[in-house]
Each structure stands twice: as structure tokens, then as C-alpha cells.
From TrEMBL:
UniProt xrefs under PANTHER family: CYSTATHIONINE BETA-SYNTHASE
Enzyme Commission code(s) on record: 4.4.1.1
Source organism of this protein record: Nocardiopsis ansamitocini
Family (UniProt): Belongs to the cysteine synthase/cystathionine beta-synthase family. Cds1 subfamily.
Primary location class: cytoplasm
Protein location: Cytoplasm
Protein name (Swiss-Prot/TrEMBL): L-cysteine desulfhydrase Cds1
């Protein structure tokens, strides 16, 4: 046999080995996608509840309860979308170690899906993350790490992924908006419109959501445009977060029209409301699809979170309180303007994750140094009288609509 023939035989064997490997790899990816789609089929539609408002107001407030997903939060949809995006892009295979930076709920949901696919998972979380969330991540087999001395969870997650043999940094803050499919019939906006289609005001005036990555708000805004609806999107933002001041300063323009030097952007401090709010504007936040933003004081978020438990008997987390404060403020404005219709807000995660902090009066007073009394009074007086009187010393400006 000649040298050339030997080389051809070797090439043929090598090609067969590579083809076999690629076939096994592709087969695993196909099965992984089937598993994720099966999960979506089982849990696509979550319940919608009606918040009790006086019937004579002619305004209905609906709460889309995303806390009942298998992993317990709104982030279940996003985590599944991120895994599907990574699988279809070729970033994940059967040997991948997945890493994420998260304040907790995204990490819980990604740990759920990593276990579903048999993949190792590590979450880098802030030191302030509730112990309940840390325990949930671990219960799904995930590892929990804290950031380095600079407190940057994203930088640490990226470093760990790079140093891992086959690591992948999921990077929710960058990829959430492109992983979500706003044209899909099972995204959160599509299910909202479908589920209230038989109500007396089936086309909501507003949908209210918070911004952590910005992916959910972006998906809702895009779907509204895609489905040619008149519904508007209001993003509520906790105090000190960078989303609200940047949106106001730039009049809701896309980032490409912003000053290119990041040092000119308005920056905030870390949010005290877990799950939403960021010190810098994330790539997944697209301000052009946001019609309005409301900045919500931390004490108002926690007061509203507790009001939800009192009035609806549902225990939710503080980001849901942020949503409820913003939604009721919009209801108050509609009522003052003589406008009728419906408003929809999202319930983000389960309150059981916050029993040792946000539902603990001592923790709120000593750790956050917050007084909930004036905000609780604002909410209770509004529901009793229809008049909205926000505490003047801490009132925040209403962002003009884009």
C-alpha cells in the first residue's frame, strides 16, 4: 500500500470518528431541547388573579402570577430561553459546566434546568442574597460562589467559566433580550393577552414590570408592537438603579443614540430590592420599547409587597411590591383622569424566599433603616378613598412618556 493510500485510510478513519462524535453531540442537543420544550408545555400558562378594587372605579388590576413556575419565579421563562439559545448556538453540550451571575432567582431557575439536563452549574451571587435562595440553588445541585473583593458578580462568573475545562458563562444581562422570542405564542405577553381576552377590558391600557436584565420588559414591548396593540409598557425601577435616570436623561432613545462614553451615563448604587435594579444599564434593556418608567422607593416596594399578602393572601417577593406600587399609581392616575380600563402587572417570585429579611420587621428597620408607615398609609388611603397621596419628602418624579 502506498503512502498516499495510508494517508487516505487514516483520513477516512478520522472522519468517521469525528462524524460519530458530532452525531452523538447533536443527538444529546436534540434530546436536551426536547426536555426543555416538554417543560415549557407543562408550565407555559401561569394563573392571572384580579386585585380587589372598588367596582365603581371601572378599572381592573390583574396580577400575572409567575411565581408558580416549577422553579418558583418569573426567571423560569428566561432561564429556559437562555439554555435554548445556548444549545442552538452551539455553546452547550453534554460536558459543559454552566456559570451565571445572579442575585438569586435566575440562578435558582438555571440550577433547575441544569439539573434537568444533567449539567454542573455554578452561580456567583451577591453576599446580600437571601439564604433561602442560596439553599434553593443548592437543592437543585448547584454550587454557590460569592464575588471577589470588588463585588462584581459578572466578572467573577466570566473568570470561573474561562478557567473551567469546558465552561460557559450564560450572561443573562447580555443575552436575555435576544434569547426571548417576542413572536412566540407562549411568551409572557402573549399569555397575558390570551388569558384576559374574556374580561370586560380585554386590551389592557398598561402592563407593568420591573427591570433586572431588561429582558422581560423588552419582550413585552416587542410583542405588543408585533401584535399591533395599543397597550403601553411601564417599567418600574427601585431607587438607586441606573435604568430610570438613564431613560429619563435620554428620553427613551435607544442606546446607540446615547453618548458613547460610558463615563457619561448616570450610574446608581446596588439596589436593595432583590431581582431588579442595576448599578449600570444592561445590554438587554432596550429603552425604545418602554413607554414610561416610574422610580419606586425601597420602602414603598416593601409596603406594597405586604399589602399584596393582606389583600390577596399571596406572599410574594419585594420586586412584586415594586410592580404593585407602580401599577396602583397608574390606576390612581386613570381614576383621576376619569379613564376606565385594565392594568396588568407581574408577580415575580415566591415570598417564602424572603421570610428572614423583607418580611422581618427588625431586619427592615435595622438593616435597611426603612420606615414603611407612610407608604402603607398611602396605599391603604388610596384603596379606601381613591386619592393618591405619596409621601412628599421622598416623592420621586414621574418620567414623561416617550
Amino acid at each position: 500500500m502506498t503512502t498516499t493510500e495510508n494517508e487516505q485510510d487514516t483520513d477516512t478513519v478520522t472522519t468517521r470518528i469525528v462524524d460519530h462524535f458530532d452525531s452523538r453531540k447533536r443527538g444529546w442537543v436534540k434530546e436536551a431541547i426536547r426536555v426543555l420544550n416538554a417543560d415549557a408545555t407543562r408550565s407555559a400558562d401561569t394563573h392571572v388573579f384580579q386585585f380587589p378594587l372598588p367596582a365603581q372605579w371601572g378599572i381592573d388590576l390583574y396580577i400575572k402570577d409567575e411565581s408558580i413556575h416549577p422553579s418558583g419565579s418569573l426567571k423560569h421563562r428566561m432561564a429556559r430561553a437562555l439554555f435554548l439559545h445556548a444549545l442552538c448556538t452551539g455553546w452547550i453540550d453534554s460536558t459543559t459546566h454552566v456559570f451565571e451571575a445572579s442575585s438569586g432567582s435566575t440562578a435558582v431557575s438555571e440550577a433547575y434546568f441544569a439539573r434537568l439536563l444533567g449539567l454542573p452549574f455554578t452561580a456567583v451571587v451577591p453576599t446580600s442574597t437571601s439564604q433561602e435562595k442560596v439553599d434553593l440553588i443548592k437543592s437543585y445541585g448547584g454550587e454557590v460562589r460569592n464575588p471577589g473583593p470588588d463585588g462584581d458578580i459578572e466578572k467573577e462568573a466570566a473568570r470561573l467559566a474561562k478557567e473551567s475545562a469546558n465552561g460557559h458563562f450564560m450572561d443573562q444581562f447580555t443575552y436575555a433580550e435576544r434569547a426571548y422570542d417576542y413572536r412566540d405564542d407562549h411568551n409572557v405577553a402573549a399569555t397575558i393577552f390570551r388569558q384576559i381576552s374574556e374580561e370586560r377590558h380585554p386590551d389592557p391600557k398598561w402592563i407593568v414590570a420591573g427591570a433586572g436584565t431588561g429582558g422581560t420588559g423588552t419582550t413585552i414591548g416587542r410583542h405588543i408592537r408585533f401584535s399591533r396593540r395599543d397597550t403601553r409598557v411601564c417599567i418600574v425601577d427601585p431607587q438607586n438603579s441606573a435604568f430610570f435616570p438613564n431613560w429619563v436623561a435620554n428620553e427613551g432613545r435607544p442606546k446607540s443614540q446615547w453618548p458613547p462614553d460610558p463615563s457619561t451615563w448616570i450610574k446608581g448604587s446596588p439596589s436593595h430590592i432583590e431581582g431588579i435594579g442595576r448599578p449600570t444599564v444592561e445590554p438587554s434593556f432596550l429603552p425604545a420599547v418602554v413607554d414610561r418608567m416610574i422610580s419606586v422607593p425601597d420602602a414603598a416596594s416593601i409596603a406594597a409587597m405586604r399589602l399584596l399578602l393582606d389583600r390577596l393572601r399571596h406572599r410574594a417577593g419585594p420586586s412584586t411590591g415594586t410592580n404593585l406600587w407602580g401599577a396602583l399609581r397608574i390606576v390612581a392616575e386613570m381614576l383621576s383622569d376619569g379613564e376606565q380600563g385594565s392594568v396588568v402587572m407581574l408577580m415575580c417570585d415566591q415570598g417564602e424566599r424572603y421570610m428572614h429579611n423583607y418580611y422581618d420587621d427588625t431586619w427592615v428597620q435595622q438593616t435597611l433603616e426603612l420606615d414603611l408607615t407612610p407608604y402603607t398609609k398611602t396605599l391603604e388611603d388610596f384603596l379606601a378613598t381613591g386619592r393618591w397621596n405619596e409621601p412628599p419628602a421622598t416623592a420621586v418624579p414621574r418620567a414623561r412618556e416617550a
